[in-house]
Protein 1
Amino acid sequence: MKSKRQLTLWDLIFYGIVLIQPTAPVPLFGVAQKLSDGHTATVLLVAMFAMMITAVSYGRMAAVHPAAGSAYTYVGKTLNPHLGFLVGWAMFLDYLLQPLINTVWISIAMSARYLPQIPYVLWAALIAAILTALNLRGIRSSARANQILLAAMCVVIVAFIALAVHFLFASGGWSGLISARPFYDPATFDWHKIWGATSFAALTYIGFDGITTLTEDAKDPKRNILLATVLVCAFTGVFGGLEVYLAQLVFPNWHAFKDLTTAFMDVANRVGGPWLFNGMGVILILAAFGSGLTGSLGAAKLLFGMGRDNVLPRNVFAHTSANGATPTYNLLIIGVLTFIGAVLLDRYGNAYELSGDMLNFGAFLAFMGVNLATFWQFTFARPPEHKWNLLTDTLLPIGGVVFCAAIWWNLNPIAMRVGGIWLAAGFIYIAIKTRGFRSAPVMIDFGST
């Protein structure tokens, strides 16, 4: 990391692209095709507009609260600390789901594509156990390894784009390459399905808000944090949209996919044969594994912070190894919850779809909170030097609230029920701890994760 106030706009954009990854829409392609009935490119663009409005709100709040970098803090400081706690509680669910969604994807890929002799449930147990064991041993993915993986992703994705363009042009000329069908097919287009698919496909953009954590290190943060968050969302939507646009033209019949969760591998095989099929599979599995490893540790550290601060029982959740560096009990708890969650979700439907929608439950509550906080901050509690603007200070953030609420409302019903139970538990907890909301809530420390 560069020294204080040395990160340029391009540094911030690159960091955001690394967070989201150039393969972001690839793992969810098949499920999104099913949910939208063949309109994944459209739902990615619809989600992009919601994310860009939210990105503007994040950038503006980061300028007002430069040390915060969190929806939880923005809502707590601007609106109400108890609402802030509930947003933090929803974000806490996302931390717990990070290792789960990655374990689910790897387990499905291995059981559906490589070693079907080993059932999904055993793969889930094996992946959860490996992630837990590596974290208990203190093994971390290095920055160098992450850079190599990012480079490999770029090589494979660029190869896919080039081969897909060649395949489509060779088979149909310009008419095979340029088509409106991925965006609008009158035979199958349905706005209800589009909104439902958008709620899932918005998973593509999760992580862009991490740029705001660099506010104190950025040059001209008031300008550059806002620009970087918006541009990263735009790049993800356009570049990811290109990937799925080509994939839809190459493989228009989503009903023919061998497995929805790993459907993009079928597309890669059609344009590049076995080498691209395996190249795509390997980088996706490695990316999910690295993300799961980091996610498990982040969730364990968050549990540790909550135990240390007496949000959760200290004797269990604040326990560390002999050297004081590893939250051993928490890692074991995360590993067990990851395995149980992977098995249960598989019984109730597509495990990857359900885990993605559950993650979006917390994420979009946070996004709604940031947009609402931005509206309040710049409409009613604006800084003395700020001149109110109807469009940017009021209409835009309220539009973000409505847009994000529409996506959130269309999440999978099972995910909504699970998320609702989680949120109700948080509400009951804070009501008891604050004696009916009469005192300030205990802070959740997201900084150490």
Note: The domain at 9-433 is CATH 1.20.1740.10 (Amino acid/polyamine transporter I).
Protein 2
Amino acid sequence: MNRPQIKTELPGPKAKEIIERDAKVMSTSLSRDVPLVVERTQDVWIYDVDGNEFLDMTSGVGVTNVGHTNPKVVEAIKNQVEKFLHFAGTDFYYEPQVTLAESLNDIRPFEEPGRVFFTNSGTESVEACIKLARYKTRRPLYIGFLGGFHGRSMGSLSFTSSKVIQRRYFSPMMPQVVHIPFPDTYRPPEGVMPEKVTDFVIWYLNRMFETVAPPEDIAAVLVEPIQGEGGYIVPPKDFFPRLKQELDKHGIYLIVDEVQSGMGRTGKMFAIEHFGVEPDIVSIAKGIASGMPMGACLAKSSVMDWEESAHSNTYGGNPVAAVAAIETIKLLKSGLVENAAKIGDYFINQLRELQKKYEVIGDVRGIGLMLAIDFVKDPVKRDYNYELRNKVIQEAFKRGLVCLAAGKSAIRFAPPLTLKEEHVDIAIEILDESIKAALG
């Protein structure tokens, strides 16, 4: 398999013109790591407006899990568009919405039958989850985790804590969200050994119960099974079982945010399944509909039993997005989840081989095709090296590999789940060259 072909200086002339137009009319809050102007996509490949080719390690930020522009998803969309584009599923009925809810029930990460509330995005899904927990428990408090990302609307932003820029100047947000440390074995709290990080977090949780957050006042804990924007941090295996044990003592719901880690990304349909714990409520989006605006709050039926009109929206469960999601789930179940596990093992082993060449790669981590390499200035001190990380992303882009940052100093790899070993080999070759170039 050939490497991506870069035919022009990047950005090329057409890309430059579009970027200049963008700068005059688009919000200045948008962040773009590389000057990529997309014209078309196919499977794991991106083609820009100047004819350059790129191997994609982002899936549109974890969205196109079944491959870019998957023909079966496209066909399902075309067929639905010719029937009807919209008819509010919150006020009326149509089959695609019901079928999708049944499909989500078939893959739910808990034993009890579930119910679904459809949304249009990840942040809307989180909003639905936290509203449901408050409605059901009548409790005012929540617990979130430092480094977590759950969206940017004012409710979800109250939990988000991966970067201070995301919160600056937006206070006051929704009150009464208490943050505790996430168990990070690579950079544990000072004085805590990596093998004791779960002990520390559980101790911290109970300390919060005793001081500022009475457990009988806590509706839910909201947590990512693997932190996404925070750096692709994978918790120890014992963390979720011990967390759930503590929550069950007090009737506190466990909400898992699977917006980035779900829909097959980690080699299981939902990342929480790696930890042997059943959540009460799940937020879903990104990979659910291959790029159509779709999200969901999936909960146990005993939890999602709020009264009529307690929560609603106009576009949730949109029929075009729904058929895209139905087809996406079929494709995931047809072998792509297993492929994510298989190719993910190959990918992480290749990244570890690359780590042996460069001591600036302090850590290689992840599960399935949710992987990251973390750059450090000193492998013993494990201090963040975001300058080098950013240079590597730029050098990789010049060579036809599109990556995204995560956390303070990590590069994340979240490619389509259609990835093959030969694609991994190309990515590793380009990464090797890019690190060399970035180091000078």
Note: The first strand starts at residue 38 and ends at 42.
